[in-house]
Amino acid sequence: MSESRLYSRRSLVTRAGQLTLSAGALALLAGNETLAAKKSAGDSSGDVAVLNVALGLEHEAIAAYQIGAESGLLQKPVLDVAVLFQSQHKAHRDALVATVEKLGGKAVMSMSADDYKKSIKLNVAGIRSQGDILMLAQRLELGAVNAYLGVIPAFGDRELAKIAGRLAADETMHYTALTQALGLPLPSAALSYGA
Predict the structure, then answer these.
(1) 110-142 confidence digits (pLDDT tens)
(2) How many angstroms separate the CA atoms of 179 and 172, rounded?
(3) pTM to 2 decimal places
(4) Residue 192 belongs to some domain of the structure
(5) Tell me, what CATH number does 155's domain have?
(6) Per-residue DSSP letters for 6-29?
């Protein structure tokens, strides 16, 4: 898969502005099939497109944490946290894949490990230290926070917006922990995320 096929925060927010997830799609994502059955109706291709962009972001995060884990540069406590965060991204991925499939769509596939390693966005060639890996992960997590927050306003149902917010909350926790691990200050301004 080429670099142009990489999914970005901007494409998720742009697609969300053009296509909003239906209440049924978000209920499926949250694992609430009863609510999904009540809310689902009509064409789900727009939902599938937005979910696949989000899925592309999750694939990228999983790959980045794998690259970090295999680099030999992460010290034991940091490696344990990276593996934990990767497992959470895998859970996000699995929920997104299941939702896409339940909507009758085809989930976007992950690129190969080699393609991620060659990705300009990940810049694996520039990784020379634990700090470099943490900076990469921090940047990706912040992009995911802002992407997920960017789609929340599209939902009229508060409960469904809450489900989308839970994904953003995981990403925010990851970003915050990585920022602390890097010894960097946390954002000092209020309303720092989602802008």
Answers:
(1) 999 999 999 888 899 999 999 999 999 999 999
(2) 10
(3) 0.77
(4) no
(5) 1.20.1260.10
(6) ---HHHHHHHHHHSPPPHHHHHHH
